[in-house]
Design a protein that fits this description.
By secondary structure, this protein is an alpha/beta fold. It folds into 2 domains: 213 residues, D-Maltodextrin-Binding Protein, domain 2; 155 residues, 3-Layer(aba) Sandwich (D-Maltodextrin-Binding Protein, domain 2), CATH 3.40.190.10. The protein has 15 helices and 13 strands. Strands 1, 2, 3, 4, 7, 8, 9, 10, 11, 12 and 13 form an 11-stranded mixed β-sheet that branches. The longest helix is centred in the last third of the chain and has 15 residues. The radius of gyration is 22 Å and the shape is globular.
């Protein structure tokens, strides 16, 4: 369930949409590969109905962000010489790089630096460009997140490499029944160290997430570069490890539902899908701040820039559409949508109507130097021994 859950019912993309308008090859096309469950099917329907010309829409859902990133890599790989034998070398379009099979692709903000550095994607627009009409409506923190130099590092004078269309957080999800016995409920990262939690917790199998939450407990940033200079960090990690039953980025909710664990740290996109079905589960965004993630539209390298893909991005940023994406996919929107509490089911309200003070303390996992990444990976491996 690593941000994979595909929403059924109102949000399922119907086959007729995926293959709509297959009558002629000359027809204008928009091909999108997207994370499953991140766009409601009815939003695609509305976009199609609002277009002035006949357009073939191909929206292909993919299970995981990692699969989408690998697809971007595959499109840019040059065929090996051994693959180009005999007459096949003279077939048109087989020489050189493979052509990307999508105009837009979903990518997570955490993958953006690698995608830019490996030249897998191209800018959506220059910073002063006007292709994206709704760009000006975004809050500055979203503009800052996707404006980068050619190596993928944050740069206020850089280019715009992605268009955020939904976001979420890393949260604590817990079994209400078990905590009723303990007489308290989790509120912050420090609760993971409390008595009675030994071997009751599952954590994400991610160095930046786990070490980051410990840094947050210690009043530091998720994006701290020199871990050696953080007092007591290693001791805190070792103590936390004694509370942990297992580490997993995929299967952390099933044991919680079954009662094998009492608390898990996970991504809101996973957690929000199960809260309504399992009333014994509660969830909270830690009060001292947490990690944030965003799903972005990116344009593969080598694809001609089309006005249709820009239209789709702008469409996703219209307040009424952004509201539908947020409510139907149980996520947050980078656009101000003024969603009323009554629009959100009670079990998921605490995660979708976030406390502004808590969010101001929260952070995206930003690119770190290779030396810092090695520190995180080394310390995480040492923690789990």
């Amino acid at each position: 369930m690593d941000r994979r859950s595909f929403l059924l019912g109102t949000s399922t993309l119907a086959l007729s949409q995926l293959l709509f308008g297959c009558g002629g090859n000359r027809q204008t096309q928009l091909k999108v590969q997207l994370l499953k469950g991140s766009i409601p099917g009815q939003v695609v329907n509305q976009f199609h109905k609002g277009l002035q010309q006949q357009v073939q829409l191909k929206f292909a859902p993919v299970d995981q962000i990692e699969d989408l990133f690998q697809q971007l890599q595959n499109w840019q790989k040059k065929p090996k010489a051994t693959d180009e034998q005999g007459w096949s070398r003279f077939i048109p379009f087989r020489q050189g790089q493979k052509t990307a099979d999508a105009d837009l692709v979903t990518l997570g903000d955490y993958w953006l630096k690698a995608a830019i550095g490996q030249k897998l994607i191209q800018p959506l627009q220059e910073l002063q460009g006007n292709q994206l009409k709704q760009w000006s409506t975004l809050d500055e923190k979203w503009k800052k997140l996707v404006t980068r130099d050619d190596q993928g590092n944050l740069d206020t004078q850089g280019k715009v490499w992605g268009a955020p269309y939904r976001w979420g957080t890393t949260v604590i999800v817990y079994n209400r029944d078990k905590f009723r016995e303990l007489g308290w409920t989790p509120k912050d990262w420090s609760d993971l160290w409390r008595d009675g939690m030994q071997q009751r917790i599952s954590l994400l199998n991610q160095p930046r997430e786990v070490i980051g939450l410990v840094l947050k407990k210690l009043g530091k940033s998720y994006n701290t570069e020199n871990l050696d200079q953080v007092p007591n960090l290693e001791k805190e990690l070792q103590t936390l490890n004694q509370q942990v039953k297992f580490y997993s980025s995929n299967n952390y909710l099933e044991p919680l539902i079954m009662g094998d664990t009492w608390l898990a740290v996970g991504w809101s996109s996973d957690v929000l899908q199960v809260l309504g079905r399992y009333p014994q589960l509660g969830a909270v965004i830690p009060q001292s701040g947490t990690a944030m993630w965003a799903d972005l539209w990116v344009r593969p390298a080598g694809i001609n820039k089309g006005t249709l893909s820009d239209q789709w991005i702008d469409f996703c940023w219209q307040p009424s559409i952004a509201k539908q994406i947020s409510v139907l996919t149980k996520s947050n929107s980078p656009i101000s949508t003024n969603i009323a509490a009554s629009d959100i089911q009670e079990p998921v309200r605490s995660l979708l109507q976030s406390d502004r003070e808590v969010l101001d303390k929260s952070e995206f996992l930003l690119p770190l130097p290779p030396s810092a990444i090695k520190q995180y990976e080394s310390l995480f491996a040492k923690m789990k021994v």
